[in-house]
């Protein structure tokens, strides 16, 4: 199951589970759309993956499959 982390790992912007702004790479690093495009130029700085639109988890599924509470912030 994907780790839907609560914030952008670049700028720390909030990314709720239903955010259309969330991006995720194949190694599950989470970014906002702005950072993925403008700061990272479409390449994950951690392992070189491609940030793509993160799937949204519907509200009725969140009770049994909650998003991650782990907040990771690596501005560099």
TrEMBL record:
<dbReference type="Pfam" id="PF06906">
    <property type="entry name" value="DUF1272"/>
</dbReference>
<feature type="region of interest" description="Disordered">
    <location>
        <begin position="50"/>
        <end position="76"/>
    </location>
</feature>
<protein>
    <recommendedName>
        <fullName>DUF1272 domain-containing protein</fullName>
    </recommendedName>
</protein>
<dbReference type="InterPro" id="IPR010696">
    <property type="entry name" value="DUF1272"/>
</dbReference>
């Amino acid at each position: 199951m994907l780790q839907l982390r609560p914030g952008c790992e670049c700028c720390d912007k909030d990314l709720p589970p239903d955010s259309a702004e969330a991006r995720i790479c194949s190694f599950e690093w989470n970014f906002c759309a702005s950072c993925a495009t403008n700061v990272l130029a479409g390449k994950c700085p951690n392992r070189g993956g491609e940030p793509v639109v993160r799937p949204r988890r519907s509200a009725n599924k969140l009770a049994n499959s909650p998003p991650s509470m782990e907040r990771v912030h690596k501005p560099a």
